[in-house]
Amino acid sequence: MRCLAVLTVRNEGAFLLEWLAHHRAVGFTDFLVFSNDCQDGTDAILDRLEEMGQITHIRNDGPYDQGGIQFTAYKAADKMEIVKQADWILTLDVDEFVNIHVGDRTLPALFDALPEAHAITLTWRLFGCAGQARFKDEPVTQTFLRAAPVKMYWPWRSAMFKTLYRNDGTYRKMGVHRPRSPDPDRVEAARWFDGEGRELDAKFRTQRIFSNYGRSNYGLVQLNHYPLGAMESYILKAARGRAVHSDHMLGVDYWVERNFNQEEDRSILDMSDRMQAELTPLKADPELARLHEAAVTWRRDKFEELMMLEPYRALFGRLLMTPPTRALPMNEARFLVRYANLAREMSAGGEENA
């Protein structure tokens, strides 16, 4: 069975080797990685990994279509042989780590638990910075262990998912959160299951990008999402801009909606030994080791450079002053959800009357 992970990256060379080692240990067999506009040597690391037979690397330096950088990459990927040969596909970012809780914690164990699934939703569990200000060249999965509560009621992005799906022709294009372009003759028969093993309703086949609020979605599998990192890393992320809209600088609003630290979640540490077994030979390659160190140095130097600029210095100060985000209780969340639903109904009514 061939399981393909598709990744898009820019200036994230310091995190690449851990990400690759972890997902090899989880059971992914193939990796298709698109890089764009890198200054830290991410593209050179990917070139070396391709030479070693670890990945397939494509430079995605533009021009980009209206969908932006990621959709341009996915559009190119849809035509590639490595994609056509895959049995299962998952699109990921470098701050997302698949965390399986069933069997031996690998993809085959997950598939054995859900043998009838055409698609499995991997719901984000958001991991906050836990007050860590400075970037350290240490595994992300061993550094950030404080996360959002299992049951979240707000915001909607706390329940967003990525989709692990069978590449059997039911969906003909990949997307950021879910496969796209369903085959009308096949999609009605597609069976979607969530991370608890519950079968999902028909809307998930074509529409949904987030799981239902107020319940656990992680019994069999979750997607550990580390969108912030340390405060220092967030300054670099802010300078890079949003993944889909790279010209939009990130601010405190993005931080507050993701900096949840209420519960400790150490479950991914069960994969540490297997991840390290994959990572050690990668770091033993002299060229990869050199390129990794260069990416780490670039990251530290870039932070020093940004701190000489008022917008980033001010942002770092705000991060230091901002307490961890409070998870909203059900009654407060319901108040917000009510207005969100009313606004959606009004918008739908306006479209019908236009």
Helix-strand blueprint:
Elements: E1 3-9, H1 13-26, E2 30-35, H2 42-51, E3 56-59, H3 69-77, H4 81-84, E4 88-92, E5 96-100, H5 107-113, E6 119-126, H6 140-143, E7 146-147, E8 161-166, E9 171-173, E10 180-182, E11 192-193, E12 221-225, H7 231-240, H8 252-256, E13 263-264, H9 272-284, H10 286-306, H11 310-321, H12 330-353
Parallel strand pairs: 1-2, 1-4, 2-3, 6-11, 6-12
Antiparallel strand pairs: 4-8, 5-12, 6-8, 7-13, 9-10
Helix pairs in contact: 1-9, 2-10, 7-10, 7-11
Spell out the key features of this protein.
354 residues, alpha/beta, 9-stranded mixed β-sheet, two-stranded antiparallel ribbon, 13 strands, globular
Count of spatially separate domains: 1
- Major sheet size, sense and barrel closure: 9 strands, mixed
Helix content: 25-40%
Which sequence of SSEs, written as H and E, runs from N to C?
EHEHEHHEEHEHEEEEEEHHEHHHH
* Proportion of strand residues: 15-25%
Question: Kindly state the mean pLDDT as a whole number?
Answer: 95
Ends apart, CA distance between termini: 50 Å
Structural class computed from helices and strand pairing:
alpha/beta
Put simply, the count of helices is 12
From the alpha carbons, calculate the radius of gyration and give it in angstroms: 20 Å
Low-confidence stretches: none
- Number-wise, the strands total 13
Q: Per the principal axes of the C-alpha atoms, what is the gross shape? A: globular
Membrane topology: Single-pass membrane protein
GO molecular function: glycosyltransferase activity
Protein name: Glycosyl transferase family 2
Keywords: Membrane, Transferase, Transmembrane, Transmembrane helix
